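Sanity check

After download, print the first record. It should look like this:
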Amino acid sequence: MGLRPLAERYADRLPLSKGAQIVSLGEGGTPLLHAPRIGSRVGAEVFLKWEGANPTGSFKDRGMTVAVSQALADGARAVVCASTGNTAASAAAYAARAGLEAVILQPEGAVTRGKLAQARAVGATVEVRPSFEQALEEARELEARGTHVLVNSLNPLRLEGQKTAAFEIVEEMGSAPDIVALPYGGGGNVCAYALGFREEGAGMPRLVAGEAANRGGTVASAIRISEPAHAEEAQRAVEESGGEVVPLADGAILEAWRLLAREEGVFCEPSSAAGLAALLAKPPGDGRVVCVITGHGLKDPDAVE
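Expected structure tokens:
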């Protein structure tokens, strides 16, 4: 037998209703991989938190197990999200597992084939809107009507689930690392890591968040979000940690993406390499660094030349 469901392992640290039926696909417990070649490039001991090993191939599963479990406990019949792809794939899968309807509102031209296939394969209703911002607005309207539970990261249960990655890092390393580098799209995951390390009480690492310089038109589709939903909270978390937000050209993100694959054997989607791109742009020089790799490369196979 494998690990217990994530929401059971951390039951005393998650705000789920007592007796809630846990909707799980085996999320969490993802590898922390030593990356010596990348470490030599940035002058530090580097580890990769490989979130592409989650059931639907991204970190979103950590939060979705909690959000969908609570939706089921509350008697919901349907969930809704706006998504550039990874949230959609996760929401659709966990909704199917729970026996709930899933409605996915996606921005036109922003979702890769792999992610769209995941959502459709498990029976979600997928509709296209002109932009992510419009898709999110309509998703929130459905929530306000009381017909659907919103499972975007505006649902605080999503971040509660995602904070567990910080718990796992401390458990495996014995203490918090000096730096955590990760991609910055909507900002929810930045906030979730800050929450997790704060609750763990093992010290707050410097948070280095790599964002696309051209947010609205980046090749890194998973972070192609012009108006981050958690912008203020994410900026505050970064500043309080002593870290920084690093704007990145697409070329820098793609170079980091290729480096992960060719030097460490980790095939991720381009957006997932934004944290590493930020490290390469501003090498730490020493210390222990965890670079969060958020999604699997099979999410975006067309990116491979």
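If your output differs, re-run the checksum step. Summary of this record's structure: The mean pLDDT is 95.
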